[in-house]
Design goal:
Strand order of the largest sheet: 2-9-8-5-6
Largest sheet: 5 strands, mixed
Structural class: mainly beta
Strand content: 35-45%
Helix content: 10-25%
Mean pLDDT: 74
Shape: globular
Number of helices: 5
């Protein structure tokens, strides 16, 4: 189930009360073993860059930067997160917590196996924002464990983050990777283009995707067929489910779109 939350630039007069002491808190640093053990995927992308990567500017160009970042977070309830019961968003300043709200809740009656959240946040707030994964077994005997994820660590402007350039203004791939289909002019062979490289087989394409860091996003632009559905006569389109499963196994977000074929 996917939930969408929009975060506005709101100033609160009072901070949240401090939690009781029986909580183990862990700061999750990007690229660490703990991040990999938690197994979540997280992307922080300039909102207009995300729209461009999805081909939304094909008819009406999207000019300039957006005031917001687009956040996508996904986590499976397993391993260290098997007792996950809540995902919170927290905004903090140097002195206290300004805002803390739940974005997703798993109860004993509604224990979904996956949390999938998308929301937007003002760019000036990104370094104040935390995602907090709260874990505790149903019984109160055991203390709560919280994992704190700093969204600023994943922002394009951060030195630790993967660069997020605009696709039309640079030749350096960003945190999104767009698969486009084509036909070789000399041989008529079906090929796929990704990160400015040409792939003649699905297996070669998968080997390239496997090198992406955790939390990356792949957008697959499939051709529209005569009935409005995808053109299934293409070998790469036929491998859609295979590519989707492969990306999931490598903690990569796989998104589909449909475009008119190029002749």
């Amino acid at each position: 189930m996917t939930r969408t939350a929009i975060v506005f630039n709101v100033l609160l007069l009072a901070g949240c009360a401090a939690r009781a002491s029986g909580v183990y808190r862990y700061d999750v640093k990007r690229g660490t073993d703990l991040e990999k053990e938690l197994g979540y995927t997280l992307s922080v992308q300039e909102a207009n860059d995300e729209s461009r990567s999805q081909g939304m500017d094909a008819v009406l160009p999207i000019e300039g930067p957006a005031p917001d970042y687009s956040i996508k977070f996904r986590a499976a309830a397993g391993a260290k997160l098997k007792d996950l019961f809540e995902l919170d968003l927290s905004l903090n300043d140097a002195k206290s917590t300004l805002l803390r709200v739940p974005l997703a809740i798993r109860s004993r009656w509604n224990r979904e196996n996956e949390i999938d959240i998308r929301f937007s946040i003002k760019k000036e707030l990104i370094n104040q924002a935390l995602l907090i994964l709260r874990c505790a077994p149903p019984t109160r005997i055991h203390p709560e464990t919280s994992y704190l994820i700093h969204l600023g660590d994943y922002a394009p402007a951060n030195a630790n983050a993967v660069p997020s350039p605009t696709p039309r203004s640079t030749l350096v791939p960003g945190p999104y990777h767009v698969i486009r289909l084509a036909t070789a002019e000399d041989t008529g062979e079906e090929v796929a283009m990704l990160d400015f490289k040409v792939f003649k087989s699905v297996e070669a394409l998968k080997q390239h995707i496997a090198k992406f860091p955790w939390g990356s996003e792949v957008l697959f632009q499939r051709w529209l067929g005569p009935t409005g559905g995808p053109g299934w006569n293409n070998k790469f389109i036929k491998a859609t489910d295979e590519l989707k499963t492969f990306c999931g196994e490598h903690h990569i977000t796989f998104t589909l779109s449909a475009v008119q074929p190029y002749y």
